[in-house]
Every structure is written in structure tokens, then in C-alpha cells.
Amino acid sequence: MMPSPESVTHSAQSMARTISETFGQGLGVKETTHRLARLLKLTERQAKSLFYGEWERIPAYVYLRLVEAYRSNLERAARQAEHKAAVYRALSHEWDELCAQDTCACASTASDGEQNMRSVPPLPLSALPTGSQPSRTGSNAA
């Protein structure tokens, strides 16, 4: 069974909006449609019609360009996610090694069944983000 023109239009609108989310936050419709038009090699009016789902029938060449851009967008997002996951895995591995070294160091310096635990000095207030610094005036702050 062939999809209806309405379902193709809805699908195209969804893909166009998903692609436009990668352009950045806070862009107006004009800038978004301009970037979408440039990406898909369309006029700005065609891109706007695609973005708002105004076409009754989308030409095949437009739909194929949209599908290709959407697939490229998904592949790029998958690569970025894999890169972030690899970074987190490396950091986790590094942390595990550091903790294992600290555990061995603590166990080797233990005496009489007590383990000497090294404490981490607190961060200076200047290292905290501005909004998270505790009040210096105490509980009387207004």
C-alpha cells in the first residue's frame, strides 16, 4: 500500500523540523528556513512550505534531498554520541585506575587494622560557579 500524500507531507515536515533543530537554539523562522533552503538547495519559500507542511504533494527530488539530509544528520548525531561515549568510557577507566591505585596505597600504609584515609581538601569558593557560592552573611541574609 502506498503512503498517502498527507502522510508523506507530515513525514517531510517532521524531518525538516528535526534537521532545523541542529541549526541551534533561538533562531527565528526566517533564519531557520534560510538554512534549510541552503542545505536542501531549495528556494526559501519552498523550505518554509516544507517546514510548515503546506505542500499537498512534495516533488520527489525535494523529498529525496530531505531524506538524504535527514540520514546524514542521524549519522552525524550517532558519531557524536559514540565519541561522547568513548570519552566517558576513557574517563571512567581512568577513574577506576586512580581509585585502584589509591586503594592499594591506603592498604599498604594501614597499621593496626586501621586504614589511613586521605581527605580531599575542599574547593576554594572562587572555584565554585557564581550561583552556588554560599552566603557569607549566614542565615541573616535577606
List the helices and strands and how they pair.
Blueprint: H1 5-21, H2 29-40, H3 44-52, H4 60-108
Helix pairs in contact: 1-3, 1-4, 2-3
What does this structure look like?
This protein is mainly α and 142 residues long. The chain is 61% helix and 0% strand. It contains 4 helices and no strands. The N and C termini lie far apart (68 Å).
Features:
142 residues, mainly alpha, 4 helices, 0% strand, elongated
First CA to last CA: what distance?
Answer: 68 Å
The stretches of 5 or more residues where confidence is low (pLDDT under 50) are 110-120, 131-142
Number of DSSP-assigned strands: 0
- Main sheet: strands, sense, barrel: none
What is the share of helical residues? 55-70%
Shape descriptor: elongated
Cα-atom Rg, whole angstroms?
Answer: 27 Å
Helix count, DSSP H or I runs of 4 or more residues: 4
Mean pLDDT: 79
Structure class: mainly alpha
Order of H and E elements:
HHHH
Summarize it.
The protein is mainly α and 142 residues long. It has helices spanning 5-21, 29-40, 44-52, 60-108. α1 packs across α4.
